[in-house]
Amino acid sequence: MVKTPSIQPVSAAPIILVDDETELVHAVGAMLRSEFGESRVRATSSPEEALGWIRSEKPAVLITDVRMPGVSGLELISHVQSTWGATPTVVITAFPTEAVSVGARRGSFVYLPKPFPFRSLVETVQQLASAPAATFSGAIAVSTLADLLQLYAISGSTGMMQVNSGERRGEIWFERGQITHARADRAEGFEAFAAIIAWPNGSFSWKLRRTDRQTISMSVSELMIDAYRVYDEARRDGRTTTPPAASPSLPPLDFSFDTTPSLAAPAAPRGLHPEALIPREPSPLPPPPLPPRQSPIGPEAPAAVEEVLSGLARLDGFLGAALVDCEYDAPLGAVGSGIDVAIAALGNSQLVQAKRRTMKSLDLHDEIEDILITLGRQYHLIRLVRSRPGLFFYMALDRAQANLAMARLRLADAERDLVL
What we know:
Layout: E1 15-18, H1 22-36, E2 41-44, H2 47-56, E3 61-65, H3 73-84, E4 89-93, E5 109-113, H4 118-128, E6 136-137, H5 145-154, E7 159-165, E8 168-175, E9 178-184, E10 187-188, H6 189-197, E11 202-207, H7 220-237, H8 301-312, E12 318-325, E13 330-335, H9 341-361, E14 370-374, E15 378-384, E16 391-398, H10 404-417
Parallel strand pairs: 1-2, 1-3, 3-4, 4-5, 6-11
Antiparallel strand pairs: 7-8, 7-11, 8-9, 9-10, 12-13, 12-16, 14-15, 15-16
Helix pairs in contact: 1-10, 2-3, 6-7, 8-10
């Protein structure tokens, strides 16, 4: 039975954060308190403790990981919604499907991939306060069926979801988080799934069942992207279409998720700086020295770079930081005195280039997000700037004083704040 919501205003209701990564909870909890007030934020690495808070009071927003020992994030979400009704929820996960979720729809569910920019979390919490009511209800209430499907996929669930919308009935079967089969009326496979995903509202139930049938061989992200594409095309053209069947060439049970970076699209690659000409004929005189290579960044860059780097200098255990141009082995700006930035810029540029060569040799079609080097007394962090592929942040921290989770979050914020 759903309780009557607390009479206290939403602005006074608690924001609950739960994740089994203790460092992340400590860092994110501290930053949330600085934004929303000390008394409003409750942060814990114990799902059981969070469950106790949920039982006593409806949260303004629940922020939870999905895969946790003991009580899973799925169980927490189910409990808060069965107790208090639809509750704004942020799912933080290392297995994101953000191409379909983040920023694509407004609703009571938002997915943030780890590591995430802290400012994105703050803006998400603020926006969820005015989220529309859920349109699919069951043990969990969500705004769109896609939110629900992704939640079960991320949790690695096996079973059958029965979906009802008016007189329509559908079934979606999961195997270890992968959707393998769907059925609606006389349709099966992708055609049935595309029909179900277009239903505007309804209810669902979850049954612990398995099937040997496999009519779907796409990853969850590919499946939903294609289903929404078919739906959007049909709606735009004002016609009903029969969705194409899934390609038989796709590998079975592809357990991959889309990891396209959110919030910022990569900029076009920068043009190469012309090299100085080297004389073709030998000369008895020493050749003139080559002009120093300079990064093709505008004159306004130093002030912007210094401002962003100064924000990193406030971290506990901070030794030094720099923004480095990987193509020219040159720091564009630096702060701190605990590290030789010139040497660090050169050495870490070579490290990033070597890692990229290795990925190419291994045929890994992916991008480096960050690199952590753990020394006996220091952490060295490298974070690549996705909007400017040739740049990366480098930061050195005293390991005894630093909070690694907070440092990674601050670097993500620095990448977002960088304007060149």
